[in-house]
Amino acid sequence: MDDDLLLLILSSPSGAGKTTLTHRLLDDFATLHFSVSHTTRKPRANEVEGQDYHFVSESRFQAMVVEGAFAEWASVHGHYYGTSIAEFARARELGRRGVLFDVDYQGARQIRAKFRSAVGVFILPPSMDELERRLTSRGLDDEETIRQRFAKAREEIEHYPFFDYIVVNDDLQHALGELRGIVHAEQARRWRRARIAEGLLSA
Predict the structure, then answer these.
(1) Is the CB of residue 99 less than 8 Å from the CB of residue 22?
(2) Residue 81 near residue 107, CB atoms below 8 Å
(3) Each residue of 146-166: pLDDT tens digit?
(4) pTM for the predicted model, two decimal places
(5) How does 155-182 read in b/e, with b if 16+ C-beta sit within 10 Å?
(6) How many CB atoms lie within 10 A of CB 77?
(7) Rounded to whole angstroms, what are the CA distances from 87 to 35, 67, 100, 124?
(8) Closest CA relative to residue 31, chosen from 83, 76, 94, 97
(9) Closest Cα to residue 110, out of 149, 68, 77?
(10) Which fold does the domain 6-202 belong to in CATH?
(11) How far apart (Å, rounded) are the C-alpha atoms in residues 46 and 95?
């Protein structure tokens, strides 16, 4: 992997708005490649195979683990999720300047253990009451699943110190603006653009 490639990890408790912010950020930055994860859960009504996730059986997922096909993988809410190493090669082939990961804190830790330059952003809801309201109002899960996700949220939020940045998603546009600022700042880091400066000096 090129040393100047931005590896941007977005993580959050379920219902904090991470998926919406991820899609909006990708609309703004054509230079970012979205890393499509594999999962064993069933697709939701609005999700597209190969675009939101690669939906696979549990046996296929386990076979990929044995094959060493994942940069990270974890069990979340009773389902498996994983980032295929092939996504890195795909980003290079497309000539992108960064890879955007939508993973939980377990996946973030695994990625950063392998790639120390990866940048972690943790997205928070403005309050636990608002998080519960969002989980309920989106109408995607049954009551038991909502209860499990809400209970899991506190555990996930405890891992916030592991991340480089925290974005509170109270207002979508404000949160998106902060994410844009993070991408611009990280892309402008000296070590990512050092070869440009060295090229000018050698001209």
Answers:
(1) no
(2) yes
(3) 888 888 888 899 999 999 999
(4) 0.83
(5) ebbebeeebebebebeeeeebbebbeeb
(6) 13
(7) 6, 16, 10, 27
(8) 97
(9) 68
(10) Rossmann fold (3.40.50)
(11) 29
